[in-house]
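User: I'm writing a tutorial on reading structure tokens. Could you give me a worked example: one chain, its sequence, then its tokens, then a sentence or two explaining what the tokens reveal?
Assistant: Sure. Here is the example chain.
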Amino acid sequence: MKAVIIDYAYLGEKHLFNKEIDICSQYNIDLELENCSTVEEIVNATKDADLVLCCGNPPITENIIARVPKVKAFIRYGIGVDSVDMEAATRHNKQVYNMPGFCSEELAMHASALILNILRNIRFYDLSVRNGDWTKAKGPKPRRLSNMTLGLFGFGGSAKELARIFKDGFKSKVIAYDPYLDQETYDKYGVERVSMENLLKISDIVSIHAPLNNKTKHFFNSDIFSKMKEDSILINVARGQIVNQKDLVDALEKGVIGYAGLDVFEKEPIEDRDKLLELENVLLTPHSAFYGKESLLEQHETAAVLIESTLIKNKVVEKNLVNKDVLNNKL
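And here are its predicted structure tokens:
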């Protein structure tokens, strides 16, 4: 049997994959660590594989899926599977696994860090001091979080963690919009369920925690920004393409909204001439909200479990299976 990690360098050096290497060695599974960037490279590396693992977001298109008949499953080292053609995978009887919740705490911490940095002028003060300016009690006047409302677009794992931090820690009001959840879930976390219109109208901070799909792509555009408060903060630690970046730049430049804290972008890495780099009311980090000692360990441990379950035990791990319709096929 053979398993291939098609883009291992996205997560780091080969020694970080010891969990996967150990489980494959235990069962005499040939594990190859590759760095593929094109369709042909992926196909060539995986055409005789039984299992494919991907760390970043390489395109797993139908063109690939149809050309790797031996592959039983694709495993994503992450939550989002927007780069995988799910319909094609199901049609070709391929299981698609992800790792829900592996970095929920890290995402919530990172979103919190962006919010606090913006509210407390941290970058402004740090740069001022380094430049020899003692800008004591200058810059935008920070507000108390206990007087602010945090609005969550999507109420999954990371959003629940962020709600806990702000509701219990900072005593903020927390509201959320997620049409796929029942009222019981909102009640359990003490978060008010609101319409999208009210989320935009009421929130001082809007934090995005939704998956990227046909409904959410470019959901945050000029029309949405026009309905937000003029001094509001937009936070995105989810997927860059949920936000129309051109419209966001325009909204920030014209003062339609106040600030943005972004960990993800429409195109990554961000281009050198991107206008976001010129704006002082934006805080930028390089798609690293998931990154952490514990989250990385959980990724590799989960990968090892899924390798063993899929190739050795012939067992479906339903909590990680994304395309559950594949269970209706003959596995």
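What the tokens reveal: The radius of gyration is 22 Å. The domain at 104-284 is CATH 3.40.50.720 (Rossmann fold).
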